[in-house]
Amino acid sequence: MKKFVVKRVLLSIVILFFVSMIIYGIMRCMPSSFVENKALELSQKPGAKSYQEWLDQLNSSYGLDEGIVQGYFTWAGKAVRFEFGDSWLFNQPVLEKFSSVIWYSFALSLSAFILEMLIAIPLGVIAAKKQYSGADYAITVLALIGISLPSFFFATILKWIFSVKLGWLDLYGIVGRMHDQLSPVGQVLDMAQHLILPVITLTIVSIGSMMRYVRTNMLEVLNSDYIRTARAKGLPERRVVNHHAFRNTLIPIITLLGGTLPSLFGGAMITETLFQIPGIGYTSYTCITQGDIPFVMFYMLFSAVLILVGNLIADILYAVVDPRVRVN
Fold first, then answer.
1. What is the Cβ-side half-sphere exposure of residue 310, based on CA atoms within 13 angstroms?
2. Above 70 in pLDDT, residue 268?
3. Is residue 327 in some structural domain?
């Protein structure tokens, strides 16, 4: 197991190396006038350095004054030391801005993820146990609705009902107007209230695929020979389903769970933008539209690391759930 993990970590480092080269190459393909325009904009601020000084600093920061290979290693050397420069849009270090917004995305995604698991897995198991029944058809319709609903459409419907018509919740933002006057507990409750609609949006549009996935795999396991043998021995149906069948259904489900790590920390760009939640998704979208190259490069590299780590965790969990993986 230790040898397997070491091999996967080394392979992930190689993959990350090539991904970072692609990210840097994309930056180098952007028009040089963009950097020049940014230098001109910064030089016009009160007390700022001259245009030429800003231009030289920006080109030097990202290796644009060198060849593409040497420039990449200049940028990568700084990235390894966690030096990603200053955000052009927010005028503060990239990592400082990142640390101030990531926890909003984490709270939003983790809440939606927990609800998704609590709803999708039991409903998928029920649909498989009662195949072709009324419950199965109802769950299938619910799953198809969740899969088919675009998040921006469903979020708009929720805002129209609960914010515009009923006035129960605010349309945008993470805090209310009186947030600073509230007690610490009240501030937490205020933020939680603003996360209700985004969490519902993420949960509803995500549970459909998980429910269908659990149902399909559960049906395959329930039709296996060892399940029929367990029933023939007189074991209670609850033990057959929950202990024997569901445990073997976990292996393919782990594939999906390993891929949830990027979504937990990577942000939900569309949902956060619709509700203007100042998380990493909404921040990165703003930086992309405003041409904030330092933050965008960091965000793409951060997303690549999350995906690689998520795949590694999924592979390790395979061995935890199924001992046969360790033997192989």
1. 19
2. yes
3. no
